[in-house]
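Q: Sequence in, structure out?
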Amino acid sequence: MVLHNCSFKKGSEETMPKLAVYAGTFDPVTNGHLWMIEQGARLFDELIIAIGVNPKKHCMFSIEDRISMLEESVKHLLNVRVDCYTDRFLVKYADSVNAKFILRGIRNESDYASERTTRNINSDINFGIVTVFLMSPRETAEVSSSMVKGLIGFEGWENIVKNYVSDTVLQKLVSSCS
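A: Exactly. Output:
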């Protein structure tokens, strides 16, 4: 019997680092985002956290503040860097930085439906970029930036919000809401 050594190598792609993009507005970055970033750092050789800037969307924090909070929150991850992009499709941004993967999180059924549609459109735009979905763990499945912002302002909000964001982000929230 003859065994063949089958290999799926495509030129130099096997030796190229696996680069992924994890995008969002991160206004503010939550523990759910940080969980995704930690997992992405484990899965890929390099992970770019891409802050999407939409001039039509009003954010609580400036782009500079969001970059600063993210950089401080992920400084222990040597294969992660922070960048931003404006007025373009995420898949186009990913292509511009030579990423072959887009990392997305799914917290619930409605996230799945929305993310599936976005993945399909991204594939129509650039079939060569693969979307990788991760399911949030139970403890962060309900956490979102919108939820965090909705808790701010009520008496004792700091004691509640500290469960959903890093110390760096909590300090920035407290100082900006004082």
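Residues 15-177 form a domain with the Rossmann fold fold (CATH 3.40.50.620).
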